[in-house]
Amino acid sequence: MRKYNGVPKANFVLFLMECEWRFNNPTPQAQLVQLKQWVKQHIG
User: Fold this and answer.
1) Which of the residues in the chain have pLDDT under 70?
2) For residues 33 and 25, what is the distance between their CA atoms, to the nearest angstrom?
3) Cα-Cα-Cα-Cα dihedral of 6, 7, 9, 12, to 10°?
4) CA distance 32 to 12
């Protein structure tokens, strides 16, 4: 695949996964809720 927005090939998969996550959690509130859940699971 060609470069997208200057994203290097090595990071393209991560970039694509982030785009998918943002698409599935379109509001900042939904993103924040999920991030807090992940932090609780992995830290506390």
Assistant:
1) 1-4
2) 10
3) -150
4) 24
Distance CA(40)–CA(34), nearest Å, equals: 10
The Cα–Cα gap between 39 and 10 comes to: 26
Q: What percent of the chain has pLDDT over 70?
A: 91
Mark out the alpha helices in 1-44 (DSSP H runs).
Answer: 9-24, 28-42
pTM to 2 decimals? 0.69
Contacts for 4 with CB less than 8 Å, ≥ 6 apart: 12, 15
Q: What is the domain partition of the chain in residue ranges?
A: 9-42
Greatest Cα-to-Cα distance within the chain, rounded to the nearest angstrom = 40
